[in-house]
Each structure stands twice: as structure tokens, then as C-alpha cells.
Amino acid sequence: MTDFAKTRAFFDLPEGIIYLDGNSLGPLPSAVPVRLDHVMRLEWGEMVITGWNRAGWIDMPRRVGDRIARLIGAAPGTVVVGDTLSIKVYQALASALDLRPDRRKIVSDSGNFPTDLYMAEGLIRSLDRGHELSLSAPENLEAAIDEDTAALLVTEVDYRTGRRHDMARLIAKAHQKGALVIWDLAHSAGAFPVDVSGLGADFAVGCTYKYLNAGPGAPAFIYVAPELADRVTPALSGWMGHEAPFAFDLDYRAGHGIDRMRVGTPPILQIAALDAALDVWDEVDLADVRAQSVALSERFIAGVEAACPDLTLASPRDPARRGSQVAFRFEHGYAAMQAMIARGVIGDFRAPDIMRFGITPLYVGADEIDRAVGILAEIMATRAWDEPAYHRREAVT
Ligand SMILES: *Cc1c(COP(=O)(O)O)cnc(C)c1O
């Protein structure tokens, strides 16, 4: 059994704050500043450029990729870390289209995160080979996959409502039609058990600053199924993905396996932060995290529905169809969230009317859930949200 009192002690949570936004930016693990101080002073500071070899910086994208592999059901040597998720989506999609040259359709849904769709649009423009991005409603996604589908680009959990796709069904349908699957794990990795190899995903991508707590701007990761890894042609053919970067050849030859998904110089400080942030997962069984997330989410929904009649549940009621967040709709959701933040409960808001609450058992327990419900109930009952200061929109909501 996972000891959630122990996992909580891994984090430096701000005093007096109830943090329900770990689905957007995980809090600071206390091991991270210690590790960064070490890397900066003793590695970068003392070793300078020799750190690439002596401190093993050059292998970090693979080594830390292996630690993520364990969390998503991937074999060692199939995941690499680097760049941002938008870039990893582009890479995976470009590879998939390349592997299905006779097909023209990229299938996705309107619940996907916009950057995934924007990257697809940009790739279609650059290729200029008549590809089409076919968007359906999430509930019609499975039916939209057909014989002309090159790639299914699917984010498992909807960033607004927390609605979770049935990935086993979607992957089976895609493969039956001969399409490749790119599974975006942005709201899955670290939220519940994931099995990319068991379900046969062709590509999987995700970020590390949400449930994996690696800090703002932390690098993304990409998984390529082992049987495809030596066949994909990297669209972003950077020198770090070359077979022999330090041969400095004038022509590009893709590196072996997942290494070819590396692009340029890896962000060592941020990967070191990720490496330290991943320590907590050595103590954790993801099945326990999922069970606790469901229990806390049910408790939160029941509490809010009992106390706040003006809020409507935007997430699926069936926990099996939710990720690890709960969303409510309220016309003045932005202001209500600002009022909550002013009272020390941090969630966030997604236009036009969604109040989002991340449920992250590593550092949130039943006591925080109950106190958050109490504070929200008080704000709604007193209309405390209706203060001009709470209606002023900031750049990041
Ligand atoms: C958070 C998120 C992103 C963010 O992409 P970045 O390039 O890291 O900014 C992309 N896709 C999905 C589905 C997300 O949830």
C-alpha cells in the first residue's frame, strides 16, 4: 500500500495553501532545489563542459526517459525526454503520416488541447500533401476512424472536463482500420496506471510539469513502439538525434531507436529537476493513486453538490470515465476561482465557465478536500465572488 503521509512529505507546499492545481503545474518536491544546487555548483560550476561526460548529462534524456517508461507501461529504452509537448506531438504526428503515405486523414476530437490541433494544422501546411485534420465530438471519435485515417491523435483526458477516453477501444479500432495512434498522456502520466505497450500504442507523448511535478517548462517525453522506432524518419532531424552527433557529418543519419527523437541540446537543469521529482514514484503504486483519486473526487463532488446549487458538474459522473480532475461550470467561475485563491484554495479556470480542481493524492488528502468544499460553499453562499477585484482577468487563468 502506498503511504500517502510519506509521499506528502516529499513536497514543499506553501504554508496555508490547499493546492488543487497539480493537473496544471505540480508543486515543488523538496528534493528538486537540493539536486539543482548540486548540479549547478558541483557539476556545471566545477566540471564546466566536462560535465557532459563526467556527470553523464549526455545520457540524461534516455536515463530519465526510462524512469518515465516505468510509469506508462513502456519498456526501458523506448522513451526519451526533451523539448516541449507541442514539439513532441509534431514529431510523433509527422512520423505517423510518413508511415502511412497513402492516407490523408488525421482524426482527433474537439476535446483535445488546442496546441495539439494547432501543431497538426502547421504540419499539414508544411507538408502540403493534402492532409486533412478531421475533428469530431469526443463521443463520436471512435466512429470517425476509417480506412483513410493515417493517425488518430488523441488526448486521453479532456483538459477542461476531465472526461477520459476508453483508450483500449480507440486503439483497437484504429489498428483494425490500419491507422496509427498517438496517445497524448498530458493528463494521464502520474494520474493513474497507463499501459502504452500493453494496449499497443504506436506513439505516446506527455509533459512532466503536471502530475509529474518537474516544474514550469519542464521537458516533455515521447514513446515510440519498439517495432517502429527504427523505421520512423524524424521530421525534426537535429544533431542530437543523429547516429553519431560528434562525427559532425554534413548529412543526417537517424540515430538508433528512440534516440532519433532527440532534437537539440537537452535542458540539463530542467531534466535534473525532473529526475529528482520522479523519486516520489519509487514509493508509489499507481493503482493506489488512482483509487485514492477516485475516493477524493467523489468526496469533493458530493460536498460541492450538497453545498453549492449554482454549480453544475462538468465532469462525467462515472469515475471510470474521469481522469484525476473535477470540473464545475458556473457563469462567474473566473471570479469565484479568484475568490478561492484569495482564501488559499488554488484551482484554475478555463473559458468560458469551467472551474477546475486537480485531485492529486500524493499531497492532497480528505482534510484538504473538506476544507476546500467549505471555503467554496462560503464564497457561493455570501456571493463573495462578486467583488470587482475578482473579475479582473490576468494573462494566465
Ligand atoms: C498541457 C498540455 C500541452 C502543453 O504543451 P506544451 O508544449 O508543454 O506547452 C499540450 N497538450 C496537452 C493535451 C496538454 O494537456
TrEMBL record:
<comment type="similarity">
    <text>Belongs to the kynureninase family.</text>
</comment>
<dbReference type="GO" id="GO:0019441">
    <property type="term" value="P:L-tryptophan catabolic process to kynurenine"/>
</dbReference>
<dbReference type="GO" id="GO:0009435">
    <property type="term" value="P:NAD+ biosynthetic process"/>
</dbReference>
<keyword id="KW-0378">Hydrolase</keyword>
<dbReference type="Pfam" id="PF22580">
    <property type="entry name" value="KYNU_C"/>
</dbReference>
<dbReference type="GO" id="GO:0030429">
    <property type="term" value="F:kynureninase activity"/>
</dbReference>
<dbReference type="InterPro" id="IPR015421">
    <property type="entry name" value="PyrdxlP-dep_Trfase_major"/>
</dbReference>
<keyword id="KW-0662">Pyridine nucleotide biosynthesis</keyword>
<comment type="function">
    <text>Catalyzes the cleavage of L-kynurenine (L-Kyn) and L-3-hydroxykynurenine (L-3OHKyn) into anthranilic acid (AA) and 3-hydroxyanthranilic acid (3-OHAA), respectively.</text>
</comment>
<comment type="pathway">
    <text>Cofactor biosynthesis; NAD(+) biosynthesis; quinolinate from L-kynurenine: step 2/3.</text>
</comment>
<dbReference type="GO" id="GO:0097053">
    <property type="term" value="P:L-kynurenine catabolic process"/>
</dbReference>
<comment type="subunit">
    <text>Homodimer.</text>
</comment>
<comment type="pathway">
    <text>Amino-acid degradation; L-kynurenine degradation; L-alanine and anthranilate from L-kynurenine: step 1/1.</text>
</comment>
<dbReference type="InterPro" id="IPR010111">
    <property type="entry name" value="Kynureninase"/>
</dbReference>
<dbReference type="GO" id="GO:0005737">
    <property type="term" value="C:cytoplasm"/>
</dbReference>
<protein>
    <recommendedName>
        <fullName>Kynureninase</fullName>
        <ecNumber>3.7.1.3</ecNumber>
    </recommendedName>
</protein>
<dbReference type="GO" id="GO:0043420">
    <property type="term" value="P:anthranilate metabolic process"/>
</dbReference>
<dbReference type="GO" id="GO:0030170">
    <property type="term" value="F:pyridoxal phosphate binding"/>
</dbReference>
<keyword id="KW-0663">Pyridoxal phosphate</keyword>
<dbReference type="InterPro" id="IPR015422">
    <property type="entry name" value="PyrdxlP-dep_Trfase_small"/>
</dbReference>
<dbReference type="InterPro" id="IPR015424">
    <property type="entry name" value="PyrdxlP-dep_Trfase"/>
</dbReference>
